[in-house]
């Protein structure tokens, strides 16, 4: 019997007898990230980074000199996972600030969720120069779109391998771990209590996305279905949808076509005053 099969069996039994208790354990597991070390290919970029500490202790890495691009990684991610894109942006004359989300890296906190990530983006933007673009991967992409609803100011935004609605993420997690119906309902209620809002509101179909954007997803992503990108693109009027045939959930970040598309977006949305300077 595999570990997952054992967990599903225990949750299936106890979830019927003590749904709130089991839901609480799964909630803590869902919201408590592991701090995973960087891969060897991330180390050269990490060595060249300037580490900065923003207000309230939020940690970030910075490279380059020029208009500022802000980045947010995904769940259990790292700033340097954007290595190929960071290199391309710096070479094109940008400053890149890549955050360590709450409870990740050296940033404070024990738990993380998309709402905390969105607030971190707003906190960072308040301290940084005007943003040329904001880029997010996976949960970081979802947090970028949420932060835009709360007043995040930027000229353009990029969503990479992000979910369109969080309720599907929660239901998928609960189903994968074998939570029965009452425990699933309790799990979602407890998450809503922690984040301070109804999960149904975390859905791009109800968002106002008024700025130029890029939505990128790989067709073979096993964690976030490619259909989520199509939903985001449908809700985001002024967005380009780029679907890649392969790249999974993580390798898509290293695809040179992603860097090319981001640079193209920045070139197309360049302010007239900057163009004529």
Automatic annotation (TrEMBL):
Has the keyword Hydrolase been applied to this entry? yes
The record ties this protein, via InterPro entries, to: AB_hydrolase_1 (IPR000073), AB_hydrolase_fold (IPR029058), Carboxylesterase_BioH (IPR050228)
Q: Molecular function terms in GO for this entry?
A: hydrolase activity
- Bilayer-crossing regions: none
State the UniProt keywords alphabetically. Hydrolase
Species per Swiss-Prot/TrEMBL record: Pseudomonas urmiensis
- Show the SUPFAM superfamilies listed in the entry: alpha/beta-Hydrolases
Asked if the record carries the keyword Hydrolase, the reply is yes
Domain AB hydrolase-1 per the UniProt entry, residue ranges: 69-184
Q: Give the protein's recorded name.
A: Alpha/beta fold hydrolase
């Amino acid at each position: 019997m595999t570990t997952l099969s054992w967990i599903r069996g225990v949750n299936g039994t106890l979830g019927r007898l003590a749904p709130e208790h089991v839901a609480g354990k799964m909630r803590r597991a869902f919201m408590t990230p592991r701090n995973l070390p960087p891969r060897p290919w991330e180390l050269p970029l990490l060595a060249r980074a300037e580490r900065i500490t923003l207000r309230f202790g939020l940690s970030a890495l910075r490279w380059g000199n020029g208009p500022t691009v802000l980045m947010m990684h995904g769940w259990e991610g790292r700033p340097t996972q954007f290595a190929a894109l960071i290199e391309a942006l710096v070479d094109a004359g940008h400053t890149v600030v890549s955050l360590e989300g709450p409870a990740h890296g050296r940033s404070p906190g024990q738990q993380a969720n998309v709402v905390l990530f969105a607030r971190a983006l707003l906190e960072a933007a308040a301290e940084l120069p005007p943003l040329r673009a904001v880029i997010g991967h996976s949960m970081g992409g979802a947090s970028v779109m949420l932060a835009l609803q709360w007043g995040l100011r930027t000229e353009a935004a990029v969503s990479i391998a992000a979910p369109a609605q969080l309720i599907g993420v929660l239901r998928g997690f609960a189903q994968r771990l074998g939570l029965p119906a009452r425990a699933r309902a309790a799990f979602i209620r407890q998450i809503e209590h922690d984040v301070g809002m109804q999960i149904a509101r975390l859905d791009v179909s109800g968002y106002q996305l008024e700025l130029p954007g890029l939505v990128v997803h790989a067709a073979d992503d096993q964690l976030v279905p490619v259909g989520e990108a199509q939903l985001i693109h449908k809700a985001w009027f002024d967005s380009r949808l780029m679907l890649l045939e392969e790249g999974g959930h993580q390798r898509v970040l290293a695809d040179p076509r992603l860097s090319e598309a981001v640079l193209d977006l920045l070139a197309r949305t360049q302010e007239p005053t900057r163009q004529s300077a």
